[in-house]
TrEMBL record:
One of its GO terms (cellular component) is cytoplasm. One of its GO terms (biological process) is regulation of translational initiation. PROSITE patterns: UPF0029. This is Xaa-Pro dipeptidase. Pfam families: Impact_N. PANTHER family: IMPACT FAMILY MEMBER YIGZ (PTHR16301:SF20), IMPACT-RELATED (PTHR16301). Belongs to the IMPACT family. InterPro entries: EFG_III/V, Impact, Impact_N, Impact_N_sf, Ribosomal_Su5_D2-typ_SF, UPF0029_Impact_CS.
Length: 204
């Protein structure tokens, strides 16, 4: 069985870049976001800021697998802006980000090939300036058990390097645990093999 992917790469903070081609100026931003709405709000922000620009093209990639995507050419020929922008995000393996490229037309047409190169390069300029960070996905659950099992339960928890968020050792024993997703199943199996231990999910 393949190990669970429990990390992904995103940006620490907004990054920006600039690319010019035949007097057309391409201003690029990559912004870390957590949802589609945040991505669209960022697009709207820059659309208002650069209200006099010819085009504000963009693409986002969301989810720890980067499986939720959307791209927009904003009036450029189909496939010449949004798709190249998204392609650079995929190639860089970054997710939970939106990339926005603002174009000021310089009076010379670039052609479909030239446009694709320009939008792609603008995103590359922003990526080159970006501070990337690795995010570890975690899971939380509760473990309930009787006092005589405390020693064995605590030994298993310590071995797994799980974090104890909260503990209660009054009438019965309860641990609120946090562990990276890739190690969660193994910890749960070890705990469930102890007779008298019950686990419960914590809904976010």
């Amino acid at each position: 069985m393949e190990p669970i992917q429990d990390t992904f790469i995103t940006l620490e903070e907004r990054a920006e870049g600039l690319y010019t081609e035949k007097r057309s100026k391409f201003i690029s931003y990559i912004v870390p976001v957590e949802s589609e709405q945040e991505a669209l709000d960022a697009v709207d922000k820059y659309r208002k800021q650069y209200y006099d620009a010819r085009h504000v093209c963009w693409a986002y990639r969301l989810g720890y697998h980067g499986s939720e995507t959307r791209a927009n050419d904003d009036g450029e020929p189909s496939g010449t802006a949004g798709k190249p922008i998204l392609g650079r995000l995929v190639a860089a393996n970054v997710t939970n980000v939106v990339a926005i490229v603002i174009r000021y037309f310089g009076g010379v047409k670039l052609g479909t090939g030239g446009l694709g190169v320009a939008y792609r390069t603008a995103v590359e300029e922003a990526l080159a300036a970006a501070k990337l960070k690795e995010v570890i996905r975690t899971e939380e659950f509760r473990c309930h058990f009787s006092y005589p099992l405390m020693g064995e339960v605590m030994r298993i928890v310590k071995d797994s390097e799980a974090n104890i968020i909260q503990q209660d050792f009054r009438e019965t024993c309860s641990l609120h645990l946090q562990i990276r997703c890739g190690q969660s199943d193994m910890l749960k199996k070890r705990l469930e093999n102890l007779y008298g231990v019950n686990l419960s999910e914590i809904k976010s």
